[in-house]
Amino acid sequence: MPKRCIDLRSDTVTQPTLKMREAMMYAEVGDDCAGEDPTVNRLQSLAAQLLGKQAALFVPTGTMGNNVAVLTHTNAGNTIILDSEAHIYYYECGAISALGGVMPITINSDDGCPNPDQVEFYLQRDPIRFPKIGLICLENTHNRRGGRAVPLEQMRDMQSVAIQYEVPVHLDGARIFNAAHALGTQVKDIADCADSVSFCLSKGLSAPVGSLLVGSSDFIENAIQVRRRLGGGMRQSGVIAAAGIIALTEMTDRLVEDHENAQYLAKELAEIDSLELDQTDFDTNMVVVNVQKIGMTAPEFVRIAREHDIRISYLDQDHIRLVTNCDVNRENIEYAADILVKLIRSIIN
Ligand SMILES: Cc1ncc(COP(=O)(O)O)c(C=O)c1O
After folding, report:
1. Which atom of ligand 1 is nearest the CA belonging to 142?
2. Residue 187's pLDDT is what?
3. CA gyration radius for the chain?
4. Residue 99 predicted with pLDDT over 70
5. CA of 125 to the centre of ligand 1 (A)
6. Ligand 1 centroid – CA 196 distance (Å)
7. Which CATH class is domain 6-13+254-348?
8. Which of 102, 157, 229, 246 has the fewest CB atoms within 10 Å around its CB?
């Protein structure tokens, strides 16, 4: 078999499709800071319509989408409540505090969605002594919780507590289309559980760059100013929005293949007793595996897998992460699974 390198580090490594490249080449553009880019406007309308919100805003990254949301919903000195493994808390370089003067209250929730009772504990505290809670943030699918799709009922429970205390909810829906497939629902239904949602075009949907923030017209009007403050006001960004339109119109249905491939990987790895893997834990495009019992740290295993031309990532000292994506087809998934299983067996034997 010819040697090949298979990249399962993330779905962010995906290449733009040929159709995206063509669309970018011929995109009709204008100055988006003046609201005059027809391609950006088309993408924003499409995103708002798909997610069932009044308006949308094109931003360069998912991180900026989240930060524009947090800064638009809150004021300096506020706190926000979120899961302790949330992307906003874990991977965004402290932006909410550095840029917004906002403090996090983290709640450890194994399944990725804070328990409403725990959240309520904070919401009902005396507002004179404690900082105001400006926002609750959810994440679906949840990256550091193994790509778990958080069920709608859980989100709705959280939302009703938020409504009771008049605190808005923001959803980091970077992979909301994966969540919709896994939950057998529409992205609109998931978005309905939050006041604002950010989602990415540049992950499993394969666009080279870009995310969207959606919400009410008033919210987006304020968000436009925050985006500019953060340096995210772009000019002829229709060039990249054009790829985003292809992402939304042609790339969402095929995510099912990535989920099936993740299930295949999980099933193969579950054959190895020392990995203690439950295949049913993985319902989207990520497989997270504890490698502690094979006698190796996750970073060491990642390095050795790389020597065998399989690129994966790690979440911490014990857990490796494999992310299926549109640039790795079933044949290559089978090949990668075969190499990894053989590699692990050679380590434990
Ligand atoms: C759940 C989640 N939110 C937000 C982001 C940030 O997206 P970006 O890399 O475009 O800033 C990511 C990136 O992987 C993510 O996994």
Report:
1. 1
2. 98
3. 21
4. yes
5. 32
6. 16
7. alpha beta
8. 229
